């Protein structure tokens, strides 16, 4: 009997593996078609000034409307897309789409609204990045400091010198830069002073417990002080509660982003969101 049970378990395990493999294969072939089939969309989450509630800009977050599956989270497809080498073309689409959207809001009379896009490691290494960014900005009349890019510390790891050179060139094109998920990567403290970035984004991990856990609160205070010393501004991501917000105000955090203010929204909802608000 024990032997039979063992065989059953092996069978079930094999069936599970087969299911996982076919699930992944389907995801992969759908993902390869998604860009050409215009299934991607950007949603926008506001960044709010801590001093006066002004809207400092939005972060563009990629959404995939996968046929038969609804809206798929980037956490589910970004790693696979990167592995398949698809994030270079998809990322280029993100940059173009963000610039197109900024131009549309401007032409609609909403003013010049800053947008930040997330860069992938492969994009940062791609030889076409700078030309692509310049072309997108020029063709949509985007001015210096209107477009921002978020990079992570881990993207510097492979080849820090090359990464720094690319970031400097982006800065030269008038792109603002921020370090995303700061404090979670292998720390680039040694590089921090050399990175041409404007902003540190404190990872949501530190924000979650900031009103309860004194160690999170002390870490946030320390990172904010460090950033300010280096002339950088600090944005807290994943701010969900009033208690977190006031703990961050107390520690001189400059900008907030999170569900407390708004979840990411479709581009069409941005005009209504901005009604009665001041855009920085
Ligand atoms: P991220 O850049 O750190 O973006 C912040 C994530 O936190 C977003 O998840 C956002 O929806 C979510 N978030 C915002 N406020 C809150 C909050 O108050 N509470 C909680 N629990 N979550 C909050 P999303 O949109 O699922 O994106 C996940 C990650 O996928 C992003 O993390 C980014 O690393 C990646 N990603 C998204 N769009 C792109 C893209 O266009 N290109 C690349 N390379 N990566 C992208
Ligand atoms: Mg980001
Ligand atoms: Mg982040
Ligand atoms: Mg994060």
Structural class: alpha/beta
Distance between the termini: 72 Å
Report the sheet-strand fraction: 15-25%
What's the pLDDT, averaged over the residues? 94
Tally of separate helices:
11
Shape: globular
How large is the radius of gyration? 21 Å
Low-confidence stretches: none
Biggest beta sheet attributes: 8 strands, mixed, barrel
Give the proportion of residues in helices: 40-55%
Strand order of the largest sheet: 1-2-4-5-6-7-8-9
Order of helices and strands: HEEEHHEHHEHEHEHHEHEEH
Bound molecule types: ligand C2E, magnesium ion
**Number of E-state strands:** 10
Organism: Pararobbsia silviterrae
Domain EAL: 24-278
Protein name: EAL domain-containing protein
Describe it for me?
The chain has 280 residues and is of the alpha/beta class. It contains 11 helices and 10 strands. An 8-stranded mixed β-barrel has the order 1-2-4-5-6-7-8-9, surrounded by 4 helices. Strand 6 (176-182), helix 7 (189-192) and strand 7 form a beta-alpha-beta unit. Helix 3 runs parallel beside helix 5 (129-139). The longest helix has 33 residues, at 2-34. It is globular, with a radius of gyration of 21 Å. 32% of the residues are buried. The mean pLDDT is 94. Bound molecules: ligand C2E and magnesium ion (MG) (3 copies). One magnesium ion binds at residues 59, 118, 150, 180. This is EAL domain-containing protein. It comes from Pararobbsia silviterrae. Residues 24-278 form the EAL domain.
